[in-house]
Design goal:
The protein is mainly α. It has seven helices and no strands.
């Protein structure tokens, strides 16, 4: 089949799957917003029960991590991610999922070689580059006399 570049471009355009960007953006907004609202509700709950704002923030963060890890373990977080896409990448719950999912996937290889070794397969590079870049940024601030 001989086609010019323009004919091929038109052919590919006709046969390419349609993008559902509006639907995906709305779903991501709803899921991510719901996770953030849950975090805010937890913060208010812990503050109302006598914790100071710093301790309430820590308790809310721990609760979100625990909830995300549990939902990952029960397979619910994956279904939520299929529906909400990028909305499930809200940093704290997305990180908990990134740690728990590989640990569960490799649990058959044992606690040390499986769960322990594979737990940070996805999240490890994020930690390494995050910590490394923050150290470089701190050194730069010290050298420039901004710290």
């Amino acid at each position: 089949m001989d086609m010019t570049k323009e004919e091929y471009r038109e052919y590919a355009k006709r046969h390419a799957p349609r993008s559902h960007i509006r639907r995906n953006a709305l779903r991501a907004f709803l899921v991510g917003g719901t996770i953030c609202c849950l975090g805010q509700l937890l913060l208010g709950f812990y503050t109302a029960h006598g914790l100071d704002p710093d301790a309430a923030g820590t308790a809310a963060s721990i609760s979100l991590v625990l909830l995300a890890a549990l939902l990952t373990g029960f397979g619910v977080y994956d279904e939520l991610a299929k529906f909400g896409g990028a909305g499930t990448l809200v940093p704290i719950t997305g990180f908990a999922n990134a740690v728990a999912a590989p640990a569960l996937e490799f649990k058959t290889e044992g606690l040390i070689a499986g769960t322990g070794a594979k737990m940070f397969v996805i999240a490890g590079p994020v930690l390494v580059y995050g910590v490394g870049s923050s150290v470089l940024y701190g050194l730069l601030l010290v050298l420039l006399g901004q710290a």
